[in-house]
Amino acid sequence: LPFLSLPSSMHLIQVDSVQRWMEDLKLMTDCECMCILQSKPISIEKDEENELILSSQYSTCDNLQLLLKRAWIISTELTRIAQKLEKNRWQRVHSMTVRVNCHVRSMINEYNAFTRNSSEEMHQFEKLLKDKCSEFTAFTERCIQTEDEQILKSMKSCINETLTTVAQYFGQLIELVLTHEAQNLLRQIELSDSMYITESAISSLFSLTQEGARLCRIIAKEGGVVALFKICRQDCFRCLYPQTLRTLASICCVEEGMHQLEKVDGILCLADILTDNTHSEATHAEAAAVIAQITSPHLTFTQHLSSFLENMEEIVTALVKLCQEASSGEVFLLASAALANITFFDTMACEILLQLNAMKILLAACSDKHIVDTPYSRDQVVTILANMSVLDQCASEIIQGNGVQLLMEMLFERPSSGNSAEVAACERVQQKSAVTLARLSRDPEVADAAIKLSCIPRLVKLCRSPTERNNSDSVLVACLVALRRLAVMSPDELEDSDFQQLVKPRLVDSFLLCTNMEESFV
């Protein structure tokens, strides 16, 4: 069934059950009240109506959040109805249908209470949806009044069809509502001369982008990228640049956002901001975040990269400077993430980094625990080192900056909590440090330094102990490759059993041996 697929970033999903119940309680009780009142809103006097409209201007974002929560509940209920219908649990189907009917009417009434210029098309969809929900409720009511299996069987297909139609109308209405709200916010950004109204509109727009890719597509389609870059080209709005750039970074996670960025010469604008020393560090950091987003190696659409290459040298230079002068771990993370992504798609970036002494700057930053303070930052640094290590000149830079010692320390990276994102970051740090060691160990001086720092015993431990590598296969493969490279340089450092099991066989055989190894075997 084509139910509305609301994003997993909805905050309801990410809180504990008691907190979620508390948030849902108001909506659920409203729903029961609406059942009693048959969804008829209590009439209000004209003065009170004006007061209501005035107060709603200051809580557009809150109203939209309420709408999205209500939509999430309806979407969840529709999915559950389909599941109960499959099991022929007619009583449950009917009670849930009544609840959906009330939620839909409550949502429509709530939305109409805070919006004043909804379109005729929207009103048509509201009526279609309400009528179809009433029809749906009537169908399910008839089902609980009969026990005849043949009648129930014949009605089941009608109910399924009605459920599908309700879901379609609901999805289309939500799409219209969100498009309408995005248009209103963008109109405020484009037409208002007021700093306060513009800031408020950008803040609301950013909140919408946090609700997932679907909303980002709507905003991009309605010209959000164009409007925000227009702000970034006006000196009078300089204080809004960080907030505006943060919103742009969110919108550019979708292809439609990238297309708009290309059309308005967004990369040139970002390069100008990054190279302008009169901007604040916060502005530079948010510009770096946009660069990190649009150069992400996970993106499948790369049409914009041709124009990026034209501005790459000055962008890379500005990012290296930002890394060097970063006053906090967050600023360093954004700048280094942008650099790490850039090194993936063009080797010229690595050559520029070498000329800029970036290796020395990054290695020095890693010794400052206030700047490189998380596995996420170390992941960016070791990504850059791994990609630069394909260059022959890189080895001497690593030796001079005590980089082998840093890579050895990264092999011991462990999460401070059970947070899955942190665990994954630690795995990437271990994997990439092993990859970097393997690449650099073609240089005898680097290999010798690694052996003196006892890298071989650590690599053996990572191969043989699944818990040391958090059961990661990618870390295992990288460690096996690095171990074999170092073993060529110094076979005497390995015990015979390690050589026979981890170095001598084919890589795939050693891999299978290690993945099947019991912890007690170590």
Overall description:
With 522 residues, this protein is mainly α. Among the domains are: 57-177, Nucleotidyltransferases  domain 2 (Four Helix Bundle (Hemerythrin (Met), subunit A), Up-down Bundle), CATH 1.20.120; 386-517. The protein is 74% helix and 0% strand. The protein has helices spanning 17-37, 46-56, 60-86, 90-114, 120-144, 149-191, 195-209, 213-221, 224-231, 241-251, 255-263, 266-275, 281-294, 305-310, 312-325, 329-345, 347-355, 358-366, 375-388, 394-400, 403-410, 420-440, 444-452, 455-464, 473-489, 496-503, 507-515. α4 (90-114) runs antiparallel to α5 (120-144), α8 (213-221) packs parallel to α11 and α24 (455-464) runs antiparallel to α25 (473-489).
**What gap, in angstroms, lies between the N and C termini?**
51 Å
How would you state the average pLDDT, rounded? 85
Order of helices and strands: HHHHHHHHHHHHHHHHHHHHHHHHHHH
Low-confidence stretches: 1-14, 30-58
Number of strands: 0
Structural class: mainly alpha
Helix amount: over 70%
Biggest sheet details? none
Shape: flat
What is the percentage of strand-forming residues? under 5%
- Using only C-alpha atoms, the radius of gyration works out to 29 Å
What is the helix tally? 27
InterPro entries: ARM-like (IPR011989), ARM-type_fold (IPR016024), Armadillo (IPR000225), Insc_C (IPR045789), INSC_LBD (IPR031938), INSC_LBD_sf (IPR038205), Inscuteable (IPR039921)
GO molecular function: cytoskeletal anchor activity
Domain Protein inscuteable homologue LGN-binding: 13-57
Domain Protein inscuteable homologue C-terminal: 70-522
